[in-house]
């Protein structure tokens, strides 16, 4: 686990999103709140918020952070969507901490989408969860916000900047290889 004890506690925020591609029939059932399993949108919101709070239990070496807020929203596409559409699942997380909350936001969005998948799979077995990414983060040294979200159905992706190779806490010629792990 990275030592963050030397960092100052600051207000941290992050928002992540993913898309869930669904059929027209499922979209109608979601809009009418008439799914066989019940209110999938509310279940997804609760599942995402709970997952964000438990991220450190799911992701190895992730710091346990005291979240001040975790908000999940599921945005349905507008219009008729005769061929189905893409639901946008967003998770916004806030905390006062020494490290960022991007992993909590990503986990919340992913688990909310998984909960939707579970609630809706009896209606649409061809759903696809796609495009999980951080869209905004603040409170650290590398704040950013996406200018406009890409279309979840378009394969075009923005160019990503790659950080320099030598950003580890180890000496430049040193390579980290764990040697104290049990092998199963």
UniProtKB/TrEMBL annotation:
The keyword Metal-binding does not apply. Residues 1-140 form the Molybdopterin cofactor biosynthesis C (MoaC) domain. One of its GO terms (biological process) is Mo-molybdopterin cofactor biosynthetic process. The keyword Transmembrane does not apply. Residues 141-184 are annotated as: Disordered. Transmembrane segments: none annotated. It holds the Pfam family MoaC. Keywords: Molybdenum cofactor biosynthesis. Pathway: Cofactor biosynthesis; molybdopterin biosynthesis. NCBIfam families: moaC (TIGR00581), PRK09364.1 (NF006870). This is Molybdopterin cofactor biosynthesis C (MoaC) domain-containing protein.
């Amino acid at each position: 686990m990275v030592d963050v004890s030397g960092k100052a506690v600051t207000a941290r925020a992050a928002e992540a999103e993913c898309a869930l591609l669904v059929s027209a029939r499922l979209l109608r059932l979601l809009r009418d709140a008439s799914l066989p399993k019940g209110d999938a949108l509310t279940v997804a919101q609760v599942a995402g918020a709970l997952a964000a709070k438990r991220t450190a239990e799911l992701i190895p070496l992730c710091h346990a952070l005291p979240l001040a807020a975790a908000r999940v929203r599921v945005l349905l596409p507008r219009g008729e969507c005769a061929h189905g559409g893409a639901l946008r699942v967003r998770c916004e997380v806030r905390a006062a901490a020494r490290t960022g909350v991007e992993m909590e936001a990503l986990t919340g969005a992913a688990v909310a989408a998984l909960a939707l998948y579970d609630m809706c799979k009896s209606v649409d077995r061809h759903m696809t969860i796609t495009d999980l990414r951080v869209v905004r983060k603040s409170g650290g040294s590398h704040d950013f916000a996406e200018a406009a979200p890409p279309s979840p159905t378009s394969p075009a992706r923005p160019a990503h900047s790659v950080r320099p190779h030598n950003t580890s806490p180890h000496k430049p010629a040193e390579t980290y290889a764990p040697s104290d792990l049990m092998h199963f």
